[in-house]
Amino acid sequence: MTSPHPLSCSTGPTARPAPSPASPTALLGLPSRGPHGSRSAMTCAFRCGNACDQPIPNVSGNEEFHTVAERAMARRQVLRGGVAAAAVGVLAFSSAAPAAAGPRHPRPRPGPVARAGAGTWSFTPVPPNRADEVSVPDGFTTDLLIAWGDPVTRDAARFDVRRQSAAAARTQFGYNNDYVGLVPHPRRKDRALLVVNHEYTDEPLMFPSGTHTPQQVLEVAIASHGMSVVEVQRGRLPGQWSVVRPRSARHNRRLHDRTVFEMTGPAAGDARLRTSGDPSGRRVLGTFNNCAGGTTPWGTVLSGEENFNQYFDASGELDPRHAASYARYGITGAGRGWSAVDRRFDLSVEPHEPYRFGWVVEVDPTDPTSRPRKHTMLGRFKHEGANVTIADSGHVVAYMGDDERGDYLYRFTSRSTYDPRPSARARRHNLTLLTEGTLWVARLDGDGPDDGVHDGTGEWIRLADDRRSYVPGMSVAEVLIDTRLAADQVSPTRMDRPEDVEVNPVNGRVYAALTNNSNRGTRNPPDEANPVSSSYVRAALGAPLTRASGNRNGYVLELEPGRGGHTGTTFAWNLMLVCGDPQAPETWFAGFPKQLVSPISCPDNVAFDAVGNLWISTDGNALGSNDGLFRVPVDGSRRGLVEQFLTVPLGAETCGPFIAPDQQSVLVAVQHPGEVDGATFESPASTWPHTHTFPRPGVVVVRRA
Ligand code: FEO
Ligand code: CA
Ligand code: CA
């Protein structure tokens, strides 16, 4: 066996020395440096393979946004002279306003008539805290719905933390739940189908010391990834849900490392997707590091394969033909040791295997016999997730972020249109919508900082459709497989870790979480769309720069589609939120009085309620509090009023969230409770949900008490 110790983590191409298997602390193999922001070294190692310690993979030399903004300012001088004003008149907020006006914001719009439910819940915001609980406002209560180890399949093994096996893990609720979707049950109104991602594993918190061999630890860890489909049933009280016993739940399903996924779209079957185990290049075993996702109007769930790169061992002798692609995707380390139990993760053995990950997965939870699919037409990168809307034209549009410092925002538009009829034939058609269409990447132009607002215009740049590539020198399949390299050639805007991107169903605007970038201001110059806090604008206004500590608290970007709506090529943008401590001068809450808002840091996932309020979950709060879930109106007089609805336990991040369609409950996934440096199974930093002496990631339902 040439691979490093199964649990050794790598911060570079050299494998770490093998730690003793007897000690979970030694098994950590954590980097010696301190964490980034408030993130523990454990999080950095296990979540994304220490991505922040690696060189930024984007070495395209693309223009950084500050240069673009300067050019935009020059153009604005021309516009002031009345030339070409009509060319930008389609954009709703920025150029349409008088150029010399003061700070501008999107036009307030009256919200729809409020309905009872999560959108209009009145609550006293939860203050920042470090409790080992899910803390909710007075008048609300939480129910644990399901947690790591609970049975999923009819033949599920009883959870025994001291005697875990991969076979058992494939029947149980996996580790580190992230995306939460709730799809209508095909036959029963009192039930729904819960679909959850299992993003990654925290081995030091999962295994009691000395109970499992390194090989067993690896096998269980791999099998604890994937997705779960679980039938849930309404309770007697409004908003109450409980899981149906697997014996009575024929839709329950675990998707894991042995599940076959079918590749679709123009790159399916391409030579670079073929391996010795799959000469067809069309059938992939497993889905890994599934982060966020989305639910489609036709009742399926999309899931993004994110930091897949960390599972591949690139320490052996590699075929140099793959070097550029591997480097652009951060496939550079010795991996997590998975190659010790499955040789397909050893790139010297299977150089094509990583091309089979980094896709958007579509699962049909209503058909437990259906084969889940990976859609090549939506491109390959570190997919945070994908959220679908139906454009006025009937075409399907999916918005997507590539979660890496300095990487891009993307969009897919379908070739065919959505069929809303409730027939089986319509559904069969809708299931093909993500296989043909066009892939786009975003460029953002600032309108200059002298208006005191981070805003401007942008355009979608076409990369490829299912018949033709628009990137010189690259075929359609090459664009889809090496999407990052293709995008590098068309000058999109480098962003600060684009995470969840979703359309507000009420006002039609698009909201993107840009979670943070500790390098902003140093290795990544600031610009109007990516300021160091607000230093870019403040410097232009003559304000002194107080710090240049990077973008530690993140932003929420708001896009308004221009002419053509969601299938058009232009948009206007603004940073609706510059997150952080409201007392810090650089923060911005869409102009709302800052003394009235909750502190918020590191936005990650976004969702909407029935009246169009934005809900934001956070990951990696750099202000010292536990992560949380926040509600923010985006229109009307309360636009920008950020209120913290809940906090998750110590060391956890808030995932999901899911605002139930009946508006009676909010579901969140509590991911990695107790993921704190130095914590082990025997000395946990959290014991949430307090069912055992160790932490268990799980999904909770919040409802009115
Ligand atoms: Fe898995 Fe981008 O967070
Ligand atoms: Ca501006
Ligand atoms: Ca995320």
Task: Please tell me about this protein's structure.
The chain is α+β, with helices and mostly antiparallel strands and 705 residues long. It has one domain (55-306, 358-704). Helix content is 11%, strand content 26%. The chain contains eleven helices and 31 strands. Strands 13, 14, 16, 17, 18, 20, 21, 22, 23 and 24 form a ten-stranded antiparallel sheet that branches. A hairpin with an 8-residue loop joins β22 and β23 (570-578). The chain is globular. The N and C termini lie far apart (56 Å). Residues 1-35, 65-115 and 537-548 have low confidence and may be disordered. One calcium ion (CA) binds next to loops. Residues 23-32 have a biased composition (Low complexity). Residues 1-34 are annotated as: Disordered.
Note poorly predicted spans.
Answer: 1-35, 65-115, 537-548
Q: What is the average of the pLDDT values?
A: 86
- Report the count of strand segments: 31
- Total of helices: 11
| Structural shape | globular
Strand residues, percent: 25-35%
N- to C-terminal separation? 56 Å
Nearest-angstrom radius of gyration?
Answer: 24 Å
Main sheet characteristics = 10 strands, antiparallel
Oligomer: single chain
Hetero groups in this structure are: MU-OXO-diiron, calcium ion
Structural class: alpha+beta
**What fraction, in percent, of the residue positions are helical?**
10-25%
Domains (count): 1
